[in-house]
Amino acid sequence: MKKVITYGSYDLLHIGHINLLKRAKALGDYLIVGVTSDDYDKRRGKINLEQPLVARIEAIKATGLADEIIVEEYEGQKIDDVRKYGVDIFTVGSDWTGQFDYLNEFCKVVYLPRTEGVSSTETRSANSTLKLGLVCDFSYVHKFVRESKYVNGLEITGIFTANGKGLPEDMRGLITDKPYEEFLDGADAVYVSTQPKVQFEYISKALKKGKHVLCESPIALSKTECEKLFALADKNGCILSEAIKTAYSDSYYRLLLLAKIGKIGKIVSIDSTCTNLLDAGKLNSLDGERNSIYDWGPTAMLPVFQLLGGDYLSKEIVVGYLDKKKSFDAFTNIRFIYKGAVANVKVGKGIKSEGELIISGTEGYIYVPAPWWKTDYFEIRYENPVNNKRFFYQLDGEGIRNELISFVRSIKSNNHISYISKRTSLAIIEVIESFEKGKDIKTIDINNT
What we know:
Layout (H helix, E strand, L loop, with lengths): L2 E6 L6 H11 L4 E7 L1 H6 L9 H11 L4 E5 L4 H9 L3 E5 L14 E5 L7 H7 L3 E7 L4 H8 L5 E7 L19 H6 L3 E5 L2 H13 L3 E4 L7 H13 L4 E3 L7 H11 L6 E10 L3 H5 L7 H4 L1 H12 L5 E8 L7 E9 L4 E8 L7 E5 L3 E4 L8 E5 L7 E4 L7 H14 L8 H16 L3 E4 L5
Parallel strand pairs: 1-2, 1-4, 2-3, 4-5, 6-7, 6-8, 8-9, 9-10, 11-14, 12-19
Antiparallel strand pairs: 11-15, 12-13, 13-14, 15-16, 16-17, 17-18
Helix pairs in contact: 8-9, 9-15, 13-15
């Protein structure tokens, strides 16, 4: 029996894919089809896939052409598979001509002609483009513009801002002079990143016009406002997603899964730290600058609420203010007491600490080095270091890229694909609301010399 093997992503299966599979099938008696995994595709730079692995496999099954379907998960697997399955012929499309000649040492390599004028990229591009407007007051929006270029089916229509001074010169042409309501008319969705005190108004106006919203956390400054926004989104058939980019990184998502399935036993303690120092020029004028709890609080609290939940017994917030008006917290420490666990969250803008994440359990602990919020690496450590394990995941665009892809997919599928649940969003808001109202707060004088 002559065995043939071929590989591909097979995203949005089309006639070109089917023709290739038929030609591959005709080369032998038994066809093995390797479908690339989501993680492997991301590592190869293919981040714009519309369909998850399961859907792509089901599409191949439905053709009836594959005798066996396997998943390609790592570089170098093709050699392993050829040996493992006793493959006689390896085949792919002619656009890869020459790139797999190294496999001739193990089997025959055949490059098949592709169907002209048909590709997954063209199919994705043919889908309606999502027009995204940016509503922002902060200079790091340039990262958002940059990462949007990697996402198929997404177009930045403009930037609505009260302060465009921090934007790079080549992006200032995107700034609109239209009123906000008119700006919304030219977009299908908006990304909102402003001072939390005005975000509620921006988001609610967008949702009332039927526009989808991706918003930096905190979404609002009270639980009531947050619940109103989620209800408004549901009423108008809109997607409202929270933009904590860390939640969309492969490394962070993986460590959550490992912690949840008991790889370190029962979780007893979480220590999460996020800090940065302010530029000297900003210390003289803090107007328009997001404080510590706004900028870092949601990210630092994310693993606490995703692993331990929001039903803590008590919390204590210790705040060190940078200014005499007590409007800007340079340092905030939040301690949560649960029935069987404790969590300590440390955030700062004006103080510096080791930005690490440590999740302690009864059998071991997970260690994520600084800066943990954009890590591509973490360790699971045990009493016996021989059992320690290290995990590496490529991180592109600090998580922003995956965040955008998830948002676009949610809109196109009309299914909220979010890595942050409403329950987690509300738990974060409740803490920030306590901060705003001065509840459960103690202050320290960090300027006392």
